[in-house]
Design goal:
The complex is a heterodimer.
Chain A: H1 15-29, H2 35-38, H3 47-55, H4 74-86, H5 92-108, H6 111-122, E1 128-131, E2 147-150, E3 155-162, E4 172-178, E5 189-195, E6 201-207, E7 213-225, E8 230-231, H7 237-249, H8 253-256, H9 259-269, H10 275-303, H11 309-333, H12 343-354, H13 365-375
Parallel strand pairs in A: 1-4
Antiparallel strand pairs in A: 2-3, 3-7, 4-5, 5-8, 6-7
Helix pairs in contact in A: 1-4, 5-6, 5-7, 9-10, 9-12, 10-11, 11-12, 11-13
Chain B: H1 3-16, H2 23-27, H3 46-59, H4 65-71, H5 78-106, E1 108-109, E2 112-113, H6 118-147, H7 156-181, H8 192-204, H9 209-223, H10 225-234
Antiparallel strand pairs in B: 1-2
The chains are: A alpha+beta, B mainly alpha.
The structure holds flavin-adenine dinucleotide.
Chain lengths: ~375, ~240
Amino acid sequence: MQSFALYPFAPPGDVAALRADLRAWLAEHQPHDDVVKRANCWASFDPDFSRALGAAGYVGMTLPAIYGGGDRHPLERYVVIEELLAAGAPVGAHWIADRQTGPLILRYGSEEQRERYLPGIAKGELYACIGLSEPGAGSDLAAVRTSARETAEGWRINGQKIWTTGAHFSHIMLALVRTEGGSERNAGLSQLLIDLDTPGITIRPIIDMAGNHDFNEVFFDDALVPHGALVGTRGQGWKQVTAELGLERSGPERYLSSHALLIALIDAAGADPEPAIAGLIGKLTAEMWTLRQLSMSTAAKLAAGEDPMVEASVVKELGNAFEQDMPRRVRAIVDCAWDDDADLARLLRALLIASPSFSLRGGTREVIRGIIARGLGLR
Amino acid sequence: MSDARDMLCDTARAVLRGADDIAPVEEVGFALLLVAEGQGGVGGDWGDANAVLHIAGMLAPDIPVADVILSGLGDVSMPHRAAATVSLMAGAMGQALALSIDHVNTRQQFGRPLGKFQAVQQSLAVMACEVAAVDAAAAAMAARLDASGFDADAAVFEIAAAKLRANRAVGVVTSIAHQVHGAIGFTEEYDLRRVTIPLMRWRGEHGNDARWAQALGRQVASFGGRGLWENLTARAG
Ligand SMILES: Cc1cc2nc3c(=O)[nH]c(=O)nc-3n(C[C@H](O)[C@H](O)[C@H](O)COP(=O)(O)OP(=O)(O)OC[C@H]3O[C@@H](n4cnc5c(N)ncnc54)[C@H](O)[C@@H]3O)c2cc1C
């Protein structure tokens, strides 16, 4: 990875029409949410909106039609999600199922799992969460200890997951668990698709520093799931999870989460902005435009069947830095009271408080830089 | 990349490696690169110019290759020069990264190559991200110039954004490259200064950060908040 070759982003079909149709649909169906809900909108939970979006064909777009999907190209889906994020649409309910759980079930799941879960995902009605982190396994994911023991009736699960976003509203969890007793590190791990209404599962909220309930802790106390809950190959969980993380890192959500703030800044500045603000808008735009090129190029590479692990990490690293920096730079220049109730001020406050999480969720900054360093041949 | 561009890049590498004056560059006909075939030129596109200038930035940053290539346009504006400079900067930054990786893999301290230390790895990862960003910006800017038939006014949004992004990267790339090199990188003899000094110079040429930030910021203000996104997505590339 010494030179970043720009991969052509060329979705099939009429992209301008795809955008225009979606914008028209949004004009009619997007709720008139408070501006703060439009920021970090992939954490905004709105099941009615998700269902309507699914009915309009904008969820599960790349899944095959036989499972209720749209049979669309991954880059068409990319166009749709960047539009949804730029508009600040509340996509949080179905976000994880659409982005990663659905594609993972399609790739590794059994026929029975596909038939059972994919149609609900494509309707925007079935929600998923990611069960990776544990109290003793954060950056060091291979330290996972939650165990699943195979018995005559199925898998018996014991242990605990933590920081699980959306577990309280999700129907299923795709969990990384230790299926081989006595195994160590990244060997002996498997992925299980767990129905969260299974007896023996307890979900407790964790309130974040913004006062929101997004993540949870999830306890497994002898919870029994059927043999058919295993996804892919027993013992290959580590490899499958790594593939899943690739889907997670390079999307437009890594640089568009705070787009509502840029919009508010531009609108507040007016057509003839004072020089300091014009300069800031110019710099932020240059960075955002560049990130869009990087993210589109990585998506195109992914769609072409390549594995742009390092590029995806570059997008996440730069995107996170941009999004954490933006509210700080606005705060440094725009004069407003902390508790001012103008849109710009409220957005600024919300994003300043939310932004420390950007370089933690989905792999910490240090972990991501480590992946890039490996790509440079240094480790 | 097309075969024609591959050949062009081979030629560029051959004449530019170790070059210390402009004559050989003129001889291979780079002045005709952007001239249409119908007018006796090579009929190359801005993507070709970007590729050659990238190599020039790596191998011969002090030779005025950009002037030679731009002379084919006839009517050269300041944004054209800024665009060419972005490509040079991308190449020079790539070279600074390559030299740095090489150095940390060879130089040993505390009984190991420097590149085995996590602090050094993380610094180089940061640098690699900046280099990737400038590469992407240069390529996207070139695509826009091609879509607009080299019309710098039509591509001024992309030129401004790319030059600003490259300018910003200069500070990060030069400081990390020099830091991981230690004293040897601060010598006249060692190659690093051959790319880092031109980077420092280019940041202020054909529009420094303040110049392009004002221009782009005012253009975006005229689009309005939501208009920025509509504009971005309506532009080619
Ligand atoms: C908003 C949010 C949502 C999340 N959602 C989910 C979810 O849905 N599902 C899920 O499974 N997890 C989720 N997570 C958890 C997230 O993946 C972890 O927070 C992350 O992996 C880091 O683990 P940790 O918090 O235990 O920090 P630690 O691993 O303890 O790290 C603390 C700090 O030390 C650094 N560090 C650790 N090891 C090293 C090392 N070897 N070298 C250098 N630095 C190091 C880290 O980079 C970090 O800066 C979420 C987190 C947040 C903040």
